[in-house]
Amino acid sequence: MNMEIFWTGLAPSGEKTLNFIGHTSIWMFFIYGLAVVVLEPVHMLIGNENWFLRGCVWASVIFALEFMSGGLLRLLGIEAWRYTGGLSVMGLIRLDYAPVWFAVGLIFERVHDLLIAYNIG
Fold first, then answer.
1. pLDDT digits (tens, 9 = 90+) for 39-71
2. Three-state SS for 23?
3. What single-letter DSSP state applies at residue 78?
4. pLDDT per residue over 68-109, tens digit each?
5. For residues 43 and 109, is the Cβ–Cβ distance under 8 A?
6. Is the pTM of this model over 0.70?
7. What burial letters (b/e) apply to 74-97, b meaning 16+ CB within 10 Å?
């Protein structure tokens, strides 16, 4: 969640200010909570694979979760986000974010492993 608020805060607001104003939707709490249930088993399945394959899996899984959850919300009349641009797919995902999701997945693996090592997770 913090990553999302940071990321949206980086977008130019059109105002002449040095303030970074990020935002999110209340629905994201549920989506991120659900993602943990999905991502933990994926991590256990791919943990011994090479980093490139794992990054590709993470990008694909995150795209799938983002597309499905955004689509479900849209069916309910809720639009928590809408991507624009040439690489946007139905406003639900942006294909040019693939390198970001690739890296985020690998970073989350490290955080997860660190928490497990310290018996926090």
1. 889 999 999 999 999 999 999 999 999 999 999
2. coil
3. -
4. 999 999 999 999 888 888 899 999 999 999 999 999 999 989
5. yes
6. yes
7. beeeeeebebeeeeeeeebbbeeb
Q: Is 71 exposed, middle or buried (0-12, 13-18, 19+ CB in 10 A)?
A: middle
State the Cα–Cα distance between residues 110 and 117, nearest whole angstrom: 10
CA distance 88 to 93: 6
- For residue 87, the SS3 value is coil
49: left (phi over 0), alpha (psi -120 to 50) or beta: beta
Q: What is the DSSP letter of 85?
A: S
User: Under DSSP, is residue 88 helix (H, G, I), strand (E, B) or coil?
Assistant: strand
The tokens for 24 are 């999110």
- Asked if residue 74 lies in contact with residue 121, where contact means CB atoms within 8 angstroms, the answer is no
Residues 2-37 as b or e (16 or more Cβ within 10 Å = b) = eeeeeeeeeeeeeeeeeeeeeebeebbeebbeebee
Domain boundaries, given as residue ranges, for the chain: 27-117
Radius of gyration, CA atoms only, the chain: 16
